[in-house]
Amino acid sequence: MRFIIGFVLYLCVSLQTYGIENRQTDNKTWVYVVSNGDNLWNITSKFLKKIDYYTDLQKINNIKYPKRINPGTVIRIPMSWLKHSPATARVAFQQGNNQYLRNEELHPLTLATKLVLGDEVRIGDDASATVVFADQSEMVLFKNTIVAFDHLSAYGKTGMVDTRIRVIQGKVETSAQKNKGPGSRLDISTPSAISSVRGTQYRVSNTTDNISTVEVIEGNVAVAGEEPNKSISVTAGLGTRIEQGKPPSKPVKLLPPPQLNTSTNVFESTPFVSWEALPKAARYNIQLSDSSSFKSILWQALTTENSIHIPVKLSDGKYFYRVTAFDDLGIEGVAANAHFSLNLYPYAPKLNGASQRFNSTVAERNLSWEVKPTSKATSYLVELASDEKFKQKVIEKHVKATEFSLPDTLAFGDYYWRVSSLENNDKGPASPVAKFNWATKVSLPNCFVDQSEDSVKLSWSVISPNQNIVIQAAQNSEFSTTLNEYRFDNKTTELTLNPEQELFIRCKVVLPNTQIESQWSETQHISQIDKGILSLFGFILLVILI
Questions:
Q1: For residue 411, what is the DSSP state?
Q2: Alpha-carbon span 129 to 136, nearest angstrom
């Protein structure tokens, strides 16, 4: 009887020991640091597969008081004891026609889609998407890309996630979270290569010929070909090319960021960006985003030129763009980043009218413009300047109507004008600049000068009954020194002056009680009269009535 009891006790101890050892067959352990309020029971309940691991956990960590564990205590837990369950990935951004394949059926990819193990995501032409994994690592999928989700799992609430993605074709850019334990894993494979990483940013691509590239922006990536045990380390600023059946090429330095030379940060028409050509660049890639992190790609294009228009329809706002260069191996370089603001709405008006404007009638002095039927403009800003760049503005006026009457006080000459639409307080882009000449239809007078030894006689052609003639006399051609001005109606045709010094004379026709007038006549220069007795302001006025 004693033998039987002893054997049973031995067997129980042996089985218990075997159980503990069996649970630790995976020599990888996860380290948990005790926080205030933790005890062995809630730690077991939160992280471990079974509650009966409680006593085993106490034994392997030599914990004397399982209900009172000092904060900061390190507890080591075998990976095989941790809860392990399938994980999902969410769609944080999607642009264009994208789909996902599940159980051999295609579905539209939306922001509500939860991607699971076995799904395949297909990004369309002129499209993109961003996927966020359970550990908050992010992956941007560019146009014409197909990826398969080969493994998605998480170790309970530990933060460790096992993610394995296969790039069938196209290109992805990944920002991986830092390693949270031995169960953390992020592998991105192609038919030609496998890349393993934690806590870095890098790109992986695969062509239809199964030629892959890996470019590391930050951190360090292990890259292998068909022989996983023969991997190479690719560090930040380097890239490698892998052909199917061959090992990765020796890492090469990524091409530097192109020098951007776009001259403006605000566009009021289709954005145009340019950059300096790189000597070793085979082509360039340009991407547009509404985020400085480029997690939302709105538009992308490849070009062999060093400039490009961005033709995509965009709302007003701030945008970010980046340009990279590809070398002859197809390895993409470091990005040059910049931003611009777009101001397209409300649409700019279309200016009407001829290049000549006159102040003689209301119709001929009006500036007018047209707007699109869909315009929501509530008012307009009219700008008038004497220079094409509007550095010398003459008029800046808000109006409600689609026309503006030029004032009589505006001096004659050439002017530039433009109009902007306003929707409440939101100012749209200005119209193309137009030029006009502001003139008058009042005829220029014919003035004549007859100089004798002691006087000067001025005469002029007959003017209309509703007109006056104005004569100015000054000591310089700019008419700024000792200016005398005389006004006569149509009954007077001559004026006699007795100046002691030289004079400059000019005349013009005006309409009484209005601001309408002709331009000044050609300036007449009168030399000094030696025999003059009277002062400059003395004169004899001879009026001959008609």
A1: P
A2: 15
Do 450 and 526 touch, CB atoms closer than 8 A?
no
- How is residue 394 written in tokens? 């003459």
Cα 461 from Cα 493, distance rounded (Å) = 7
Cβ neighbours of 184 (radius 10 Å): 22
Task: List residues bridging with 213 in a β-sheet.
Answer: 205, 241
Q: For residues 306 and 418, what is the distance between their CA atoms, to the nearest angstrom?
A: 32
Whether the predicted pLDDT of 285 surpasses 60 = yes
| Cα 261 from Cα 265, distance rounded (Å) | 11
Under 8 Å CB-to-CB from 159, ≥6 apart: which residues? 135, 180, 181, 184
pTM of the model as a whole: 0.71
From the list 504, 505, 498, the residue with the least C-alpha distance to 454 is 498
Strands 266-267 and 336-342: what pairing? parallel
Beta strands in 371-490 (DSSP E): 379-385, 393-399, 403-405, 413-423, 426-430, 434-439, 447-451, 456-460, 468-474, 484-488
The answer to whether residue 280 scores a pLDDT higher than 90 is yes
- Length of the chain (residues): 546
Cα separation of the two ends of the chain: 161
Q: How far apart are CA 120 and CA 431, in angstroms?
A: 49
SS3 letters across 377-406: CCEEEEEEECCCCCCCEEEEEEECCCEEEC
- Calpha distance 164→190 (Å, rounded): 11
CA dist list (Å): 231 to 21, 50, 235, 249, 510: 33, 38, 13, 11, 93
pLDDT one-digit tens code per residue, 116-137: 999 999 999 999 999 999 999 9
Under 8 Å between Cβ of 509 and 503? no
